[in-house]
Amino acid sequence: MNRNIPVLLILVSILFVSIAVYGQTSHTTVDTNTRVIDGYAAAFSQLEPGDTIFLKGGKRDFLLIKNIQGTEGYPIVIINQDGPLIIDTEHYFGISIQNCRFFKFTGSGDPSNFYGIRIDRVASGGGLGIGAKSSDYEIDHVSIRNCPAGGLNAKTDPDCNLTATRDKFTQYNTLIHDNYIENVGDEGMYIGSTKYFGQNVNCYGTDTLLMPSLLEGVRVYNNIVEYTGMDGIQVSSATTDCQVFDNMILFDSQKEMFAQMSGITIGGGSKCDCYNNYISHGKGNGIEVHGLGSLKIYNNIIIDPGKDFQPADTSKMRFGIYVTDVSVEADSSFNILFNTIVNPKSDGIRFNSILSRNNLIISNIILNPGNYDYYENGPTSFKGEDSYVMIPDDRAEITIENNFFSRTFDPSWFIGNTYSPAPGSPMADKAYPNALGILSDYLHHNRLYGSGYDIGAIEFNPSLYGIDEKPADNTMVLQLFPNPVERWLTIRYHLETSSDVSLEIYDLKGQRIMEQKQSAMAGEEQNLRVDVSGLAAGIYLYSLNCRNSYVSGKFIKQK
Length: 559
Known about the structure:
The chain has one helix and 46 strands. By secondary structure, it is an all-beta fold. It has a 23-stranded parallel sheet that branches. A twelve-stranded parallel sheet has the order 3-5-7-10-13-16-21-24-27-30-33-36, with no helix packed on it. Strands 1-46-45-42-43 form a five-stranded antiparallel sheet, with no helix packed on it.
């Protein structure tokens, strides 16, 4: 299923470095006939922190991994070898990871496939589950498709054994990045419990309130999620140090199930900053916020949220950003700034919180909210202008300043097919003077260029078609430019030690379509230049590889 999505600056490259992909000591190889990897079993009892488990490439049935224990600084690495690992199963899960801690599960073992671990079909359930008190892990370069239930589930639910309740277990350091999820029946990613306030369960004849575990240290980034039945990405009960950023969510909420329809949900009990995401053509709200407060929603581009959800029925409302009091801590704040919201079915932002204080809605672009005529001419007490930022209860305490609202889209306001303000546009240099410490925009350019900040997700900069960014570890990538690109793509970098470097380019399914290599000298600035004129217009992944390190990201090829 493909729909014609306008080629905007949908996602640009943000550079992340992964160092020492393989474990540091010995390794174990697992063939395609093995269905269970159990750290307590004799075959795997020799595993030590820092070891590597190689999963042989090829087709296999489901896979259960349990009782694998690394240590902080010495995770056990589980990685594909000799091609992609492909799961096609009649089972009720594709891969299940249980009671594992300090591990890295990665599909980065095959340079020909960006997603080296592929769950292509699960007949009776979900794709990848990480639970049973698993903690301190990283999941990357995994593709999950064609599952009647959810794509990726990362949580531990308490039960009557009372070993995983909030007072007994905390899920630490959950890193989920560079994955692809498509065509799943429920949520694309379900991270943390939605039962933040607990759930009453009959345990051995007694009604018992089971409080779920909390998550501390969450990073969800650089994932692509499309065609989900319910929410694209949902993060709940993540109370501390949580960030959801640089994800692409397309066509979420296709089942049209009420209360489970969003591109991204910051669920109950969460305190997550949500930024630099691209959300388009979903049937749900763009971003829902039911969290604790004291968080920021910024630099997001949200296109057509809810437009395809019962378009003739104005009572079935959907919003660009939706904020509630579900779990808000009294006197905390929501800061919503530098977002670009285009063609929401109903309101641009609906702010339904009265318990929070000192809230800010500033420096946002909101274009053509669908409720304008309904409020202006329908049986309501609201005015059309209320559809940009709808505040149903006037007890809400909000500062609304320096936003740009319009019912029309004037191409002269922006550069090309982007949402970057053009010089002299009504958004240029007109944002709220306080950026709340946000130093970069959606493209990872410096936020301040000119006499003031620009309104919206993108800051105008003459180097729009290049990315000027500090390298993630000050040793590798300096720039990728231009982006978008028509013919010549350049990556500028330097290394601390001399090494061969390879650039791999992949399509969105993770298949390698181009490769270019060069040798680089230590301490010198290098340019790797590649002709991409033969690529069709669209979005591509890349990986720049150097020994056991790599940086990855995305670029846009224009016609």
